[in-house]
Amino acid sequence: MARRAPALPLWNVDSTVLLADVAVDAQAVYLAGFPFDPGAPRLQAVARDRSGTRTLLPARHAPVSLVRADADGLFVVVPGAILEVDRVTGDTRRVAATLPAATVRLELAGAWLYGVPLGVSGVYRVPRAGGDLEWVALGRGMCVAADGERLAVVVDGQVRVRVGTGPFTELGAVHNPHRLAWVGDTLVAAEFAEAGALVAFDTATGSRRELAVGGYYSQVLAHQGWVYVTQALHKSGPWVFRVRVESGEVQPLVRGRSKGGRLAVGAGMLAWIGDSRGGAGALDLAALG
Fold first, then answer.
1. Each residue of 151-187: pLDDT tens digit?
2. Of 70, 37, 36, 76, which Cα lies nearest the Cα of 56?
């Protein structure tokens, strides 16, 4: 009889049914409340040592649609603006005024924040220290990922990359991508479509390959040679998993039903929201070996 794999030590971070977004750093898992729930805290920090939960932005604050964190800061998207939030006090600083159209993608990379507004033709960046929006790509922008001097965007269904301020090079087409992630010289796109795939582009050679096929991939985040992925599922099954980019090895992590969810990875932890049962979960990546 085959032996079952040991259960992973999953952490039930929060049981709130509806949440907007999740981020993680070395201190906490950050949860953005559902924007249309007027009584929900807009942003909470759940301590990674499980010592408690703090409200950083209360219910009376403007709704938060996106939250991003790294070692250098915590940022949120609210209507008409990007804010930096003090992780201890909850005090905010306006980084930039944004367009009336909602920013639906936000990525942190070095000294810059990169964003994609809904229904507006382009991808913008703004200095982390604050300033005006600068358009880095024009056209129907959908995704953006930055790694040092390297920038990747999907505009008008085409993946394009550039180094520094040089011209963009076109790598190929993707269908309805939701996220991009850099893993070394490989750029991975998650296609949210019935016949979608995790598509890996080798930016050194221009070659394209499919890491996984199955449809409706939503999130893809890179961490130490793996990409962590979510998939929309109508029936219960693995909906959070990771793929080794070099070999294509797939490791299922979390089962359930989901519309695609949201992921965050950093400082040795994976966190997610979006299971049909609601709530937020997390996993110490050290448990995966």
1. 999 988 899 999 988 899 999 999 999 899 999 999 9
2. 76
